[in-house]
Specification:
There is one protein chain. By secondary structure, the protein is an alpha/beta fold. It has one domain (6-123): Rossmann fold. It has five helices and seven strands, in the order βαβαβαβββαβα. It has helices at residues 14-26, 37-46, 63-73, 93-99, 112-123; strands at 6-10, 30-34, 51-55, 78-83, 87-88, 91-92, 104-107. The strands form two sheets. It has a five-stranded parallel beta sheet, sandwiched between helices. β5 (87-88) and β6 (91-92) form a beta hairpin. The termini are close together.
Length: 124
Amino acid sequence: MGSVKRILVVDDNADLRSTIQALLQADGFEVVVAGDGEAALAAHQARPADVVITDLFMPDKDGIETIVELRKLSPKLKIVAMSGWTSIQGSDYLRVAREIGAAVTLQKPFDPQELSRVVRQLAA
């Protein structure tokens, strides 16, 4: 195929979005960023991504809601969920993300090389 894979990065932290964008662009991906779930859904509907990387805790539309809606739009979409929080009030949000369709979950802070490897594998 040989076409450049499109990665959508969703996080309310602008510094982290920029860091991930630079990392993945260096790997040869086209990277689009969104600051929240609503912007992510709009970006994906305008031009579908091959892989979505989403934070779980964001204002307005959180990552869990975003994953559910992305799954409705694109059932086979590869999704990476990430969070600095593993559980809140007894709920394991990374586990929930896997159960609703995230292919991979990463706990922040994560090794940038691990994220790069995961995305290359999912985009293949």
